[in-house]
Amino acid sequence: MLNNTEKVSVKRKIYVLDTSGIIGRFLSQKSPNITTNGVMKEVKDFESRIFTENALKNGDLEVCEPNEGALSNVQEVMETSGDVLRLSKVDLELVALAVTLQESYLPMVITDDYSMQNVLEIMKIPYRSVLTKGIEEIYRWVLICRGCKKIYPNDYKDPDCEICGSKLGKKRIKGHKN
Ligand SMILES: [Zn+2]
Description:
By secondary structure, the chain is of the alpha/beta class. It folds into 2 domains: 121 residues, Rossmann fold; 36 residues. The protein has 7 helices and 8 strands; from the N terminus they run H-E-H-E-H-H-E-H-H-E-H-E-E-E-E. The strands form 2 sheets. It has a 5-stranded parallel sheet with strand order 3-2-1-4-5. A hairpin with a 5-residue loop joins strand 6 and strand 7. The longest helix has 14 residues.
């Protein structure tokens, strides 16, 4: 448990961009931006191509593929939620990339697609619409001891603090700015 708690606090934010994120010119200067090969192929208009090529060249954007486990995981959620009909293979891969990145990052998906946002909601992966990029403060919840303020992983089962015995509670904290 102690190790998990430490991991939660050192995880870095990463932005996972879908096609609408790229067309909307979303690019964080403070956190890494990442997308999939499938999204790159979907971006066809000339200006957006220049935008992504420059971003890749400058190291502001990375391209990565999801792992197999994450893909089948997301596929399953899409099938149960009924969103599978409205979502493409590219969408599936992008959500799966966010799941893959959860190992070592706090992924935030940038998408305007409602079905995609629905799947992300079910999978408890944070997302933002590119249309709201002016909103700089993002909130998230942490499980915290009301006594000694030790932070626990959100799935921690015991209602009491292992150190001081006080009750644990949820607290809203500010995420990092872009
Ligand atoms: Zn405590």
